[in-house]
Amino acid sequence: MKEIIEKSLSKAMSYDDYKVLVDKLIKEGKSTGENQSEDLLNYSVLNDKRMKRLDKTLHVSSESIENVKKIKDKQTWLVLTEGWCGDAAQNLPMINKIAKENSNINLQLVLRDENLDLMDSFLTNGGRSIPKLIVLDDKKNVVGTWGPRPSEATAMVKTYKEKNGKLDAEFKKDLQIWYNKNKGRNTEDDLVSLLS
């Protein structure tokens, strides 16, 4: 496992570098990943706008900041993501804001499809769901994981799948509405709980 983690970390980028990469690819008419399609490009464009908005509008509560500042040991937060992923666009800005509150947290992002060995070590119900946050201690041991969605959204997905068999466009629209109303609070609460 450590070998896989080290290999992925050697390809990792900062949050800001990730945003620059996604923006550059969009200007070239591309999305991240090997698979290219008009749909993936359109999702990437939408998510790029969404992340820029959330970077400006999301705020971490003072209580959460206080808890995050208590972390005394160095950690790396390694996140698997892709520019076309709606859940990643909704959650990465809050993950970044929380990580910035403590210099002991080093946030690093890798593209899922370029790091399948890592992704396949952290599947969600057998799927390559992203974003996936892997919390590593200073010796690169896994001390926690989070993702691909905040707990309330995860419960929504589970209930909908049990009732309807799969997620459809109507559910995805409802999920985005939930994200907009929640304003990152559930992600913030989940991450602070993970650190405690």
What would you say this structure looks like, in words?
The structure is a single chain. This protein has 196 residues and is of the alpha+beta class. The protein has one domain: Glutaredoxin (3-Layer(aba) Sandwich). The protein is built from nine helices and four strands, in the order ααααβαβαββααα. The protein has helices spanning 2-9, 15-27, 38-57, 62-68, 86-99, 116-120, 151-164, 169-182, 185-195, and strands spanning 75-81, 105-111, 132-136, 142-146. Strands 2-1-3-4 form a four-stranded mixed beta sheet, with helices on one face. The model has no long low-confidence stretch (mean pLDDT 96).
User: Which descriptor suits the 3D outline?
Assistant: globular
- The number of E-state strands comes to 4
Within CATH, the superfamily carries the name Glutaredoxin
Query: What's the alpha carbon Rg, rounded to whole Å?
Result: 16 Å
The structural class is alpha+beta
Major sheet attributes: 4 strands, mixed
**Strand content bin:** 5-15%
The CATH C-level class name: Alpha Beta
CATH architecture call: 3-Layer(aba) Sandwich
Q: Compute the separation of the termini in Å.
A: 24 Å
Strand order across the biggest sheet? 2-1-3-4
Tally of discrete structural domains: 1
Subunit organisation of the chains: single chain
Give the integer mean of the pLDDT values.
96
Q: N-to-C SSE series?
A: HHHHEHEHEEHHH
Regions with pLDDT < 50 over 5+ consecutive residues?
A: none
CATH topology: Glutaredoxin
Helix content: 40-55%
